[in-house]
């Protein structure tokens, strides 16, 4: 391991790769990208700060994966096809083992989605990764938070709550066997952005968001932007056997306010039920109808007996309140 690797050597060694699609990648003052005709550019930025978004226990490879995954999840929620990304990196020191692992996780996911790193910035400082992703979507076809209509069905992809369970274990509030821990830890550290599903939902879903801060909070954004309410059936929320084995109060909290799920939450007219199932099948991701949109504002979660579940104790994550 070298202690003397400079900024530009580090960039060249770990982040400069030949580009195939972009007209110009890493190495000049700007990257250059060409957009296909009729497409809009979809852009999103997400920052991961040590101690806030990830724990020091995360292996660098998984951190690289997650930093890109949470950004791709935003493109997925808009139904955009990912094209390229930039990486702004603040590192306490030029630790090559760390940077090599980070780059490995980052590029493995980038290759899986056929996208390329086209630029960034590298500086010394507290560990912080900020990625900006760019994607394209046919003009006017992006999925928005504002499109939910009364009577729409409400859907979610994958399973909810495992990432939150892992956090509880890391916080020392919960214990589980090694196999269960590996499962929930993988959910937390290596979320799979639902990019294919997002694209398959264009023209089918009326509104969408990705779940980063917990179901209640993120659904709240759709409801607010769309000017509607929703009813959610607790018993329909998809979850793992590991979560099913937890006490009901914890299970509820993980499902409704867990955070870090990176699944898609979306609405679609009831008449498009089969089209949603087909989008799930085509993209290889399970989708589950969990409720419906109501004209009456506000969110009502009901249990298996049809009784309203009190939501006051379940707060969505907020960086300035939590
Ligand atoms: P400038 O000073 O002109 O902003 P920099 O010296 O910051 O340029 O970066 C040099 C080149 O390396 C640029 O093309 C920039 O996009 C790229 N770059 C810097 N850091 C990273 C990184 N972490 N990942 C990818 N590209 C990077
Ligand atoms: Mg720079």
Question: What this model shows, in words?
Answer:
The structure is a single chain. The chain is of the alpha+beta class. It folds into two domains: 131 residues, PurM-like, N-terminal domain (60s Ribosomal Protein L30, Chain: A, 2-Layer Sandwich); 150 residues, PurM-like C-terminal domain (Phosphoribosyl-aminoimidazole Synthetase, Chain A, domain 2, Alpha-Beta Complex). It has ten helices and ten strands. The strands form two sheets. It has a six-stranded mixed sheet with strand order 6-8-5-9-7-10, sandwiched between helices. A four-stranded mixed sheet has the order 1-4-2-3. Strand 2, helix 3 and strand 3 form a beta-alpha-beta unit. Helix 2 runs parallel beside helix 3 and helix 4 packs across helix 5. The protein starts with 6 loop residues before the first helix and ends in a 20-residue tail after the last strand. It binds adenosine-5'-diphosphate and magnesium ion.
- Quantity of strands, as a count: 10
**Ligands:** adenosine-5'-diphosphate, magnesium ion
- Poorly predicted runs are none
Helix content, binned percent: 25-40%
Summarize, please:
The chain has 322 residues and is an alpha+beta fold.
């Amino acid at each position: 391991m070298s202690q003397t690797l400079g900024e530009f050597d580090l960039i060249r060694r770990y982040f400069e790769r030949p580009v195939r699609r972009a007209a110009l990648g890493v190495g000049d003052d700007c990257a250059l990208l060409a957009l296909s005709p009729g497409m809009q550019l979809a852009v999103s930025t997400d920052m991961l700060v040590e101690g806030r978004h990830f724990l020091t226990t995360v292996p660098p490879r998984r951190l690289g994966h997650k930093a890109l995954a949470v950004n791709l999840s935003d493109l997925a929620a808009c139904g955009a096809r990912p094209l390229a990304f930039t990486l702004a990196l603040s590192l306490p020191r030029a630790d090559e083992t760390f940077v090599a692992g980070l780059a490995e996780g980052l590029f493995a996911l980038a290759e899986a989605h056929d996208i390329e790193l086209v630029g960034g910035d590298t500086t010394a400082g507290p560990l912080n990764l900020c990625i900006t992703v760019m994607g394209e979507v046919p003009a006017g076809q992006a999925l928005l938070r504002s499109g939910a209509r009364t009577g729409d069905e409400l859907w979610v992809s994958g399973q909810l709550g495992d990432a939150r369970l892992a956090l509880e274990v890391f916080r020392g509030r919960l214990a589980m066997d090694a196999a269960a821990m590996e499962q929930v830890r993988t959910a937390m550290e290596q979320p799979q952005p639902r990019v294919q599903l997002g694209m398959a939902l264009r023209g089918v879903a009326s509104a969408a968001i990705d779940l980063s801060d917990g179901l209640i909070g993120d659904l709240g954004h759709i409801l607010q932007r769309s000017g509607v309410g929703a009813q959610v059936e607790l018993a329909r929320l998809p979850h793992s056997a590991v979560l099913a084995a937890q006490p009901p109060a914890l299970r509820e909290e993980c499902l409704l306010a867990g955070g870090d799920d990176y699944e898609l939450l979306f609405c679609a007219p009831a008449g498009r039920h089969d089209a949603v199932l087909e989008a799930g099948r085509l993209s290889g991701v399970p989708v589950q109808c969990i409720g419906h949109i109501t004209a009456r504002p506000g969110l009502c979660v009901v249990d298996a007996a049809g009784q309203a579940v009190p939501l006051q104790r379940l707060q969505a994550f907020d960086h300035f309140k939590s």
